[in-house]
Amino acid sequence: MAHRITLIPGDGIGPEVAQATKMVLDAAGVDIEWIEKKAGGDHIHKFGTPLPEETLASIRETTVALKGPITTPVGSGFGSVNVKIRKELDLYANYRPAKTLPGVPTRYKNVDTIIIRENTEGLYSGLEHLVIPGVVESQRIITEEGSKRIIRFAFELARQQNRKKVTAVHKANILKLSDGLFLEVARRIARDYPDIEFEDAIVDATAMRLVMDPTQFDVLVMENLFGDILSDLSSGLIGGLGMAPSANIGESYAVFEAVHGSAPDIAGKGLANPTALILSGTLMLHHIGEGNAAKRIEKAVEKTLADPSNRTGDLGGKAKTMDYVKALLKNLEET
Ligand code: NAI
Q1: Which of 30, 59, 268, 294 has the fewest CB atoms within 10 Å, measured from its CB?
Q2: Does residue 71 have its Cβ closer than 6 Å to ligand 1?
Q3: Is the CB of 51 under 6 A from ligand 1?
């Protein structure tokens, strides 16, 4: 029976990388019925909202979605569709692996970290208000329950994937109450996992340590904003945003998307690197029990990127999105 998957192409480079990903997943022989749905600012005139109810309803029905990036206007305008999807579906865990692929030119050869970002609380709660003209207050929500479930998620994942260490990243030296709570919960939960090394680290020092020597980290767990920033940093260690996949996981639903945004500077030009969404697609295949197809695609991606003539501009190459996809499809046939 076909897997029913909601596909949200998004905007900017979204439709280009979504099309590329769909071609690769279909070519791997996985029987997928794609249910395409809209989201983003371009659809407000038709639906009256950037996140139509029918799009959310489709994810609720299929329980799994593959999503391209969606632009969020800066300063004013509608709020983030991405944040709204994560909150509406309670996709509390954002899984962001950063692994160097052989053949891709990077500063470090053996990066292999996973950032687990809390996806529903922190400063992304969207609770901001004007106190008096000139003074704005934003609320950063950290709850014991939210901390418990994300930290447990990180330890469970570490155990499943035979990982050695979990680092809880925080700013509890300054944010004594909120990050103090997060850290206390992390220390408590760590005691249930004596087989996994546990450390805690202050977020600013973690940024420096990641840049100096990322191999000292394994699984890192943190609240929303820290995870947003450090996962972009981590993507820079493995070749850039074009290489970084992610998964948003909750109890009932999962939405797979690249770490990157809509890249308006290169949108519509056929220049985007679709690897990040393709690898998000392979995370999705693992999730739906199609691990063999996922591994074939991962191998074909490695082989394709090992040849410099297949690399897109972000990796220092000259290939266009579809040149890369063509080479990848050929390698997939031979894998
Ligand atoms: P961005 O990730 O879109 O772009 C940053 C830089 O990386 C740009 O130079 C871009 O060309 C490059 N880049 C990103 N993805 C690439 C790819 N696949 N191939 C080659 N180069 C790539 O970040 P930016 O410019 O800060 O955000 C643009 C818009 O995207 C904003 O409206 C932001 O809110 C939204 N955004 C959406 C996300 C989502 O839908 N999950 C995540 C992050 C940002």
Answers
A1: 268
A2: yes
A3: no
Q: What residues are paired with 36 via a beta bridge? A: 7
User: Whose CA is closest to atom 38 on ligand 1?
Assistant: 261
CATH of domain 107-237: 3.40.718.10
Q: Which residues are catalytic?
A: 124, 171, 204, 228
Fold of 1-99+242-335: Isopropylmalate Dehydrogenase (3.40.718)
Looking at ligand 1, which residue's alpha carbon is closest to its atom 34?
Answer: 72
What atom of ligand 1 comes closest to residue 260's alpha carbon? 2
Residuewise pLDDT in 10s, the chain (335 residues)? 899 999 999 999 999 999 999 999 999 999 999 999 999 888 887 888 889 999 999 999 999 999 999 998 887 777 888 989 999 999 999 999 999 998 898 999 899 999 999 999 999 888 899 999 999 999 999 999 999 999 999 999 999 999 999 999 999 999 999 999 999 999 999 999 999 999 999 999 999 999 999 999 999 999 999 999 999 999 999 999 999 999 999 999 999 999 999 999 999 999 999 999 999 999 999 999 999 999 999 999 999 999 999 999 999 999 999 999 999 999 999 88
The residues spanned by each domain of the chain are 1-99+242-335, 107-237
d(CA 234, CA 191): 28
263 close to ligand 1 (CB < 6 Angstrom): yes
Cβ 272 under 6 angstroms from ligand 1:
yes
Same fold flag, 1-99+242-335 and 107-237: yes
- DSSP one-letter string for 226-292: HHHHHHHHHHHHTT-GGG-EEEEE-SS-EEEEESS---TTTTTTT----HHHHHHHHHHHHHTT-HH
Tell me which amino acid residue 177 is: L
Cα separations (Å) of 250 from 35, 87, 93, 243, 313?
Answer: 21, 10, 6, 24, 35
